[in-house]
Structure formats: C-alpha cells, structure tokens
Amino acid sequence: MIKLAFPHLLASVKQLQDIVNYEIVGNELWRFGLLLLVILATLIVGRFVRFIIDRTAQRLERKDDIQLLQSFLCCVSRPISVAIFAGGLYFSRWCFRFVSENQPLGFSAQTNETWIKISHAVVAIAIAYFIYRLVDIIEFYLKRLTGRTDTKLDDMLVPVIRKTLRIFIAAISALFIADNILEMQLGTVLAAAGVGGLAIALAAQETIANFFGSINIFADRPFQVGDRIRVGGFDGPVEEVGFRSTRIRTLDGHLITAPNSKVVNEMVENISKRPFIKRLTNISVTYDTPPDKVEKALQIIKDILADTEQVNRDPDLVPRVYFSDFQSFYLNILVIYWVKPPDYWLFQEVNEKVNLRIMRAFESEGIEFAFPTQTLYLKKDQ
Q1: Distance (Å, rounded) from C-alpha 270 to C-alpha 218?
Q2: What is d(CA 100, CA 114) in angstroms, rounded to the nearest whole number?
Q3: How much is the pLDDT for 151?
C-alpha cells in the first residue's frame, strides 16, 4: 500500500511544484504569494505600532504637564501605520524580477519605476496626513488662547481656521504628489479643470452662497458661539459656525445644521444679548375684596418686588403694579418686572420666591385669590 501511495504523492508534489513555479510575465506564481504575505505582515506591523502608540497616549491623557506629547502621539498614530505600509510596499517589489541588462525576463522597467513612484506617493501621503493631523494641536492651543479673551468672535474663528488649514494642506499635498512624484501633466489637468469650471460653479451655487453667508456672519456678528438664538423656528445655543453651515443645539437636545445662506436671510433673535428677562403676570382677587384691601395687595406686591435683589431698579424699568381691570369673576392686578442678570434659571428662582412671598402675605392679610365662579339668583313666585 505504501509503495502504491508513494508514486501518487510524488506526482502530487510535482504537480504542486509546477503550479507554484508557473510563470506570469517572467515571475513564478509563488512570488505573488510572497507579495501577499509581505503586504499582510506590513499591515499587521502597522496596526500593532498604532495600537502601542494609542495605548501610550491614553496613559498620558490624565497628565496635564505632558498634554503636548499626548496630542502629538494621537496625531502620529495613524500616519505612521500608512508610512509602514508604504515601506512594505516599496520593499515588496524585491519579490519580483524586472527586466534589466542582466535579467531578460520579468516585469518591465517602467513597471518598476511606477511601483517606486507609487511607494513614494504613499510615503508623501503619510507625511501629508501627519501634517493634516497636526492641525488638531494648533486648534487645541488656539482654543486655550481664545479662552482667555472676553469676546467670542475668536472662538468662532477657530473652527474656520482649522478647516482652512486642512483644505490648504490637502490641496498642496495633492499638487505636490501629482507634480513631483507621479509626474503628471498638471497643465493638461488644470486646463480641463478650467473648461469644467463653469459647470462646477453652477453646480456649487448653494455652496458659494453659504460661504458668503458665513462671511456675513463674521462681519455683522449677529451672534457668537455659545449664544442662544431663535432662527427659522429653532431655539438653542450656537455650537459652531463653519464655512457652509451653523450648528445649533436645540433646548430638546437635537443638533440642527442650518445653511449659512438661510441664516443670514432669516430674522435672528439673539436671546443671550438681552440685558434682562421680563415677567408679565396677572394676579386676581375676589370681587368681595374691599378697596382698602386691594390697595393693601398692591402695596404688598410693590414692597416684595422692592425687597427682591435681582429685580431690576433702573429708572426706565422699575417694577409696575396696577389694579388694571374688572374681569368677569375677579379683580385683576397687573404685575410687570424685569430680572437681571438675564439667567433663565435665576429668573425662575426669582419668580418662585416672589410667588411664595405674595401667597404668605395675602394669607396673613386675609386677601383671597379668585377662581372661576358663577352666582345664580333664583326668583321666587309670589
């Protein structure tokens, strides 16, 4: 049985050798398998190096004195994996034979040059990617610098500067790689771009309108980052102003992205710019309240408002309390006052404090609040 199986085994091995040694453009098939292994190993090494760098950055995250190092590691982790892949791609060409003076068989010399160019292009992409990520460090320190100023205009400019730098880096890197590494004919490309420029401009009308809308926002400054605004039926603080859109976080927690061209054409109500918050309320007392007690109620409310620290006392905005009207089932007292500073939750606290003091004072004076009532008079037959 062994003697019978041995020739078959030899035949299978020889057949496998024939398959592995099968040549494609002067290169055995096993060389392509070796290329696959080299690229796979390169990807694994790149992933491992990136994992080590990310773990190191996470350990440094809680240490304030080395934030710059931690930010640098975060910026370099992904580009370095691309650079390792570029190195593996460059050296993997050694797996193949290329035509030369001493080597008549193999891929053409032009293929070898193209392979080298592609490897160099990937290295350049890795470097450009690293510079692109360094913008995050610039943004971090710009935010720290702008955080020391009172105005929020510079806070609005930081995202714009970040996007501008990234677009600039991406454009310059693409032109450099195309011209100096891949040796493309940029003149032809730019000429073609000029021919299609009109079509692109027509297609990008909305984008251009949004861009000029952002310029109008920065010039007129109807709001700043952090301001609470009402625009287009939405109410909430502004989180970011970009080239194309403005992001608003509504009071329900939803993130609204509004095109800048729409924002500049809408009526924008900047709630954060109000110097105070106005309250207008009506307090009703029963019809059987004597006039002297109505006067007493008016004086109680005036004294309470005068004794409340956050109620505005500017000459033009002093609290207003009036016996304003005879309603169907109650006597109406109109109360108007302004709370300063314009903090919404402070406004609610002041309202609660004023309401409770009015209730206690009315109770001690025997003044009753009115509620919907109806009196029926029955006439007896004689």
Answers
A1: 15
A2: 15
A3: 61
C-alpha 266/C-alpha 232 separation (Å) is 7
Cα of 259 vs its chain's centroid, Å: 14
Angstrom distance (rounded) from CA 79 to CA 133: 9
What local confidence, expressed as pLDDT, does residue 356 receive?
A: 95
Rg (alpha carbons) of the chain, rounded to whole number: 38
pLDDT in tens, 310-369: 898 788 888 999 999 998 889 999 999 999 888 888 999 999 999 999 999 999 999 999
Query: Cα separation of 181 and 6, whole Å?
Result: 56
pTM, full prediction: 0.54
Q: Give the three-class secondary structure for 36.
A: helix
Distance CA 133, CA 176 (A): 18
The C-alpha atoms of residue 223 and residue 22 are separated, in whole angstroms, by 71
CB atoms within 10 A of CB 381: 3
Q: What's the pLDDT tens digit per position in 8-32? A: 566 666 666 666 667 776 777 778 8
Residue 244's identity, in one-letter code, is R
Q: Cα(318)–Cα(336) distance, rounded to whole angstroms? A: 9
CA 163 to chain centre: 12
CB-CB contact of 231 with 260 (8 Å): no
> What is the tens place of the pLDDT at every residue in 56-86?
888 776 665 567 777 788 888 888 888 898 8
**Cα–Cα distance measured from residue 18 to residue 27, given in angstroms and rounded to the nearest whole number:** 13
Instruction: Provide the CATH topology of domain 274-365.
Output: Alpha-Beta Plaits (3.30.70)
Could you tell me the fold of the domain covering 205-272? Answer: SH3 type barrels. (2.30.30)
Decide if 205-272 and 274-365 have a common fold: no
* Nearest Cα to Cα of residue 218 among 243, 252, 187, 182: 243
CA–CA dist 361, 356 (Å, integer)? 9
The residue extents of the domains of the chain are 7-193, 205-272, 274-365
Q: What is the phi-psi region of residue 277: left when phi exceeds 0, alpha when psi lies from -120 to 50, beta otherwise?
A: beta
